[in-house]
Amino acid sequence: MPDIDVPLITLNDGATIPQLGLGVYKVADDEAERVVRTALDAGYRHVDTATLYGNEAGVGRALRDSSLARDEVFLTTKVWNTAQGYDETLRAFDESLALLGTDHVDLYLIHWPAPRRDRYVETYRALEAIRAEGRARSIGVSNFSVSHLERLLGETDVVPVVDQVEAHPWLPQRELRAFADERGIVTEAWSPLARGRILDDPTLTAIADAHGVSVAQVVIRWHLQQGLVVIPKSATASRIRSNLDVFGFELDADQLAAIAGLESGQRTGSHPDDVD
């Protein structure tokens, strides 16, 4: 298998997470096995799934069929909004483990705060219990804004290791990242390529041409140099491999400044306050 040196980031609980991983949102369960096996063969050691994605079983099959030991792959899944609540989350986690066919995950996240449900604090307390049992080695959140994090930190005991949010050059999440950084929370980027919409940007195209790489590779490299964990999604073998091939070049200060100028606040997904 390829020997690709993906950097590791140390989380606030002492665990480490590969800075670049594979996202499998909107990958069908029967396709997920092939996609994840392709990624593992290419050198990925970090896979991010969720109950919502409906492909935990396929992801689990790929991990079991791989020659890699379970502890060689960092595995994340998430509890969905309709399963929020203390007891409900414990049941949902058991179901995820059964589908994945493993006795633990490396990271378990609350998928959205769903503030109108107002159950994310008790849901997180269930995550704390799961962590104490060793069945989730680390716990965190996804799509939490500063206000959600402030409340969670004030009412629970374990600081989340990660906040996984939409982040890309249009939406660099500066305020949220600064808040998280001060509290030892790593920011992880979903939709790092803005669902493909950013790939025609002329500034990024010029930078890609200068390095002889693709725009997607430039954007992923930007995430890495920002200190973010990044999980680009693709079901295409060539793109899966290309998205990992981002360690042979570096963006210089002028290029980083040009990318910073692309910030617009534009989202390609929902605002955290709008998801139930």
Overall CATH architecture of the domain at 14-193 and 229-234 = Alpha-Beta Barrel
Q: Tell me the strand order in the biggest sheet.
A: 3-4-5-6-7-8-9-10
Assigned CATH superfamily of the domain at 14-193 and 229-234: NADP-dependent oxidoreductase domain
The low-pLDDT segments are none
Work out the helicity level. Answer: 25-40%
Helix/strand class: alpha/beta
Mean pLDDT: 97
CATH overall fold name of the domain at 14-193 and 229-234 = TIM Barrel
Largest sheet, if any? 8 strands, parallel
Looking at how many chains there are and whether they match, the oligomeric state comes to single chain
Radius of gyration: 18 Å
Return the CATH class of the domain at 14-193 and 229-234.
Alpha Beta
EC number: 1.1.1.346
Organism: Frigoribacterium faeni
InterPro entries: AKR, Aldo/ket_reductase_CS, NAD(P)_OxRdtase_dom_sf, NADP_OxRdtase_dom
Keywords: NADP, Oxidoreductase
